[in-house]
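Regression report. Comparing outputs from two consecutive submissions.

Submission 1:
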Amino acid sequence: MADSQEDLIATFCAVTSAEVGTAEQYLQAADYNLENAVELFFASGGASIATQNTVINNDDVAAAEAAQAAEYAEPEVRERIERRVDRLVDPDVPRFVFGNEPPIPSAPRGIFNQGRNMDFAQNMSPHERRLAELFRPPFDMMEDLDLDSAKQEAQEEKKWLLVNIQDTTEFSCQRLNRDLWRHESVKVVVKENFVFLQYDNDSTDGQMYRSLYPFETFPHMAILDPWTGEQQKVWSKVPSVEHFLEDLVEFLGQPGSVEQAPQEPLSVKGTASNTTITQVPEPEIVAGQEKLAEDGEEEEEEEKEEQEEEETTPEDPVASIEPLDIPEPDPGADVTRIQLRLSDGQRIVRRFKVSTKVAEIFAIIKHLKPEFAGKSLVLTAGRQNLSSELEKTIEEANLKNSTVLVES
C-alpha cells in the first residue's frame, strides 16, 4: 500500500477512532478523499459499509415495482395546457449591476477549507470539530493581505516575507497545517522574523502569486525579499519540523538577514541616516580635543588636497552613458521583468533579457526619460547600488523580477 494511503488511513483512524478495515472501506468509497470519507463516516453513524450494502432498501424495491406497473398501465391522457404569454425578464434591466460580473462564489467552508471564523462548525459533531481543529490553518500568524501590501508591511517592519500556497485537494498541504504550522517553535521563529502569508491555489491572490513565481508541486513555500521581490529560498515538499527550523536558522544567520534584514534603499542625498557614528571612549575624546588645535593647519592642507583630487576625478561613468532605444524582448525563458520606480512615483514595468548588462538599463531609462540625459542617475535594488555593477548582467546582479529605484 502506498505511503500516502497509509497516512490517510492513520489520520482517519486518529480522528474517528474507527478500525483500520472500516477506514479502508470509507476511504475507498470516497476515492481516498479524506474529508469526504470522514463526513461519510459521521453521516452514516460509523456503520460498516459492507454491512450497509447487504441491507435491502425497501423504498427502492417499492419504487421499482411502481415503475413496472406504470409501464403496463393504460396511458393517461392529460388535459390541454392553456396558452400563456408572460414577460420573464425586463429588457430595460441591465444584466449585471454597474456592468460588473458577479463575483465567483467561493467553495463551501469545510474541514479542509476553513475560514477565519468557525461559524461553519456550529452544526458539527464533536468528532468533526476535533478534525477541523487538527487541520486548522495558522490564522494566528497569517496576515490577511495581498502580496503588494504584505511587501510594504515587511519593509516597514524590516522582516522577510514568507509565502505558502496550498491546494486543499492535496493531503500533503493538510499535513503542513497539522504538523508544521502548529508547532510552537515554528510559530515563534516565523512571527519574529517574517510577514507570513498563506493563499489557496484557487484564490485571486494565489493565482497572482503563481503568475509571478510559477511552480508545479504543492505545498509551495518561499522566502521573498520584500524590496526586490526576489525569491531567497523555496520549499516544494513538507519538511520535518527539525529540518524546517534548521533551514530558517541557517537563512537568518546569513549576512543581510535578521538585524540586517531588508533595509531601506540607499539615498542620493546625504542624510543623518547615511552617517556612520562610532562611539569613542571618553579618554580618547579628551585627548582628541587637546590635539585639535595643533592639527588645525594640517586639516586645512588636507582639505585643499582633497579638493584638488576631486577636480581631477575622471568623468562619472553613469553620466557619460548615452540614451539607447533597445527593443523590448518577447517573453521567454531567458527574459525577466523589472519594475522601475521613479522618484516622482511613476512606475515602468519592462522586459529585459537576463544577459542584458546593468549599463544598458541606465541607457534605456535615459531614452525613456529624456530629461535624464547627461545626468548621473542612482539606481538601487534593495541594498545594492547599481552604479558599481555596470558591467554585470541582470542575472549576475540578481535583478530578475526585481524593483529598481531610480533617482537623479
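Submission 2:
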Amino acid sequence: MKPDIEFPFGSRRQDYDGIGGKILAWLRDHGSYLSPGNGLNIWSLIGAFLGAVMVNLLILAPMFLLSVYLIYLAAQHKISFAMLSAPYNILFLIGAFFVLWYIAKVILYILNVVWKKRPDFDRQRKERGSAGKVLMYGVLILVISSIPAVHCFLLAHLTGWIGTVSISTVFAGILSFVSAYRESKKRENEPIGFEKLFLTVGVSLVLYGLVIWIYHLFYLGQIGVDLLLPLLVSFGFGVLIFTIAHLLKKEPKWALGISVLLLAIAIGTLWLWLSGEAHLPGAIGIVLLFSLPISALFAAFTKINYVSMHRYYRNRLMEAYLPWSVVGVSGESADKFSLTKLKEPEKTPYLIINTNVNMVGSDSTRQRKRGGDNFIFSPLFCGSDITGYRETDRYASGKMNLATAFAISGAAVDPNTYATRSKPISFAMSLLNARLGYWIENPREKSGAETIGWNYYLSIFKELFGKGLNEHETYIHLADGGHFENLGLYELIRRKCRYIIVSDAGKDPRFTFGYLAKVIELARVDFGAEIKIDTRPLRPDEKHQLSKTAFILGTVRYHDGKIVDIIYVKTTMIEGLSEDIYSYRRTNPKFPDQTTTDQFFDEMQFEAYRELGYQIGKNLCKNEWQEDFSSIFRG
C-alpha cells in the first residue's frame, strides 16, 4: 500500500520509479539468484543437487554394483599351473596375457626392423597403434585384478581395518584432487603437468577406495539380501504402477499414491520374509540382475536434461534475468519465450548465444584437441561449423527458448571439457550427475525430435567414458561457450563486423589476458584475421594496483585486407572511482577478479561490480575520447 505522506525532497535516483530503476532494483535484489528466497534457499539448492545424484545413482548403481560383483565372482575362480607356486585369479591372467602380447608385438617389431632395413610406414603406424591399445587393456585389467589381491592382503594383515583403509584411500584421493585443483585455479587456466596428474590420481584413488569397500561388502554378504532386495523390489512395484498409468495416459496422482502404498507393503513383507533367511545362495546376483530391468524402466521415462542440475540452474537464471517478473507477468511467458520471437531486427540487436559442442571424439583432429566447436543459438539459425546449421524455427521442433539457450551458455560445470578432460574426473562427475550441460539433437539430423527419451543410457555412458561425443551422433552435448572461447569475439570475427566492442570480465588477477590471447589465436587460425591490441595500459602499477585505463583501442585485419576497429574493455581498478568501490577492494582484495564459483552476491558486492562497470563506461564516452569514439561508430 502506498503511504499517504512521502519524503518531500526527492532524494532518490531520478529513474527510481521508472522501468530502468525497477529493472536495476530487481537485478540487485537477485544477486544471489541460486537461493532467491520465497521458499527457495540454500537448502533447496543442496536438495536439488542430492536429488540429481540420487536419480543418477538409481539408474547407474545397479550396473556399477554388478560390475564389482562380477570382479568378485571372477576372483573366486582361480587357475593353477605347474610352473606357478600359487593359483591366480582369472582377471590377473587375462591382464598378464595382454601385457605379454604387447611384449611379443614389440619383439616382433624389432625383429622386423632387423630383417627389413626400411619397414613399411603404414604398417609401422598401424602396429604402433595396435600395440598401444593392447598395453592399455592389459594395464587396465591388471588394475582391476588387483582389487581382489588388495582385499586379500588387507583381510590377511589388517582384519577389521578394511573399512578404515578404504576410507583413507578415498580421503587421500580427495586431498590430492583438492590440492591440484587449487594450484590450477591460481593460474586461472586448465590443469597442466603434475596438476593434471594429481587430479587424475586423486579421483582414481577415490573410485578405487570405494570399489574395494563395495567388494568387501560383497565378501561379507552384506549387500543384496539385507538391503538391495527389499528396496529394489518395492521400488520396482511402484515404478511399474506409475509407468502403466503413464502409458495409459491417466492422471498420475493416483498411481503415485498406490506406488507409495505398495512400497511400504513390499518393504515390510520382504523384510519379514528375508529376516528368516540368513543368506540365500546367489541372492546377491539375483538382486542385482533384478535391479537392471528396474533401472532400464526408470531410465526409459527419465529425460536426462531434466534430472541434472541444469534444470534448477536454468530456472533460477530465468527468474532472475528474464524481464517477466519486473512487469508482473506469469513465469510461464518467460519459460516458453522462443528465440524465434527475436527475429525483428528493427526492434532489437541480433542476438547470438555462444555455447560449446563437445567434440572430444571428433574425426577432426583440430576439434578433438580443442574439445569442441563454437555452437550458436540465434533467432534465425542454430548450429556450428562441424555439425552444420538449421533454421531456428525448424530446430528442436521450433521450441528452443531463450531461458534454456542462455543457461546452456553458462553451463561451466561439465565433464569432458578442457578442464575436466581426465577420464576418471569425467567419470566421477557423470556418475554423481555433476553436470550442467544439455543434450540436444544434431542439426545434421532432420528428425525434429524435441527430447531424447529412451536414450538416457546412451547419453550418460558417452559422458561417463568420453566416447561417442562427435559430429556424427544423432544427439550432441552442449555446455558453456567459455570452454571454447570466453569473450564472444569469435563469431563477430566470423561475420567480419565493422565495429566491435569486447568486454572482458573474466577472472584474471595476474592480468595474463589468457581469454584474449586464445581468441586472437583462434581468429588467426580459423579465419586468417589478425587482431592487434596493446594491453600494457591495462596492467596495474605495482604501488597502488591501479591501471591507467580500463579500455584500449585495437584493430582487426580480416583476410581480405579490410581493417576495422575494436575496443577492448577490461574490469580493472582505475583512478576516480567512488570510495565505496575502493573500500570494497580493501575488504575483498580479489575484487574485481573474484572466483566465478561465487554465485551469491549481496547488495554491496553487486553494487561494487555494477558501479565499476558504470564508471568504466562513463570514462569510455567522456569528452577526451568523444572525437575518436564517435569516429569509430559513425555510419
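Expected: both submissions complete independently.
Actual: both completed, but the second showed a warning that disappeared on reload.
Relevant detail on submission 2: The radius of gyration is 29 Å.
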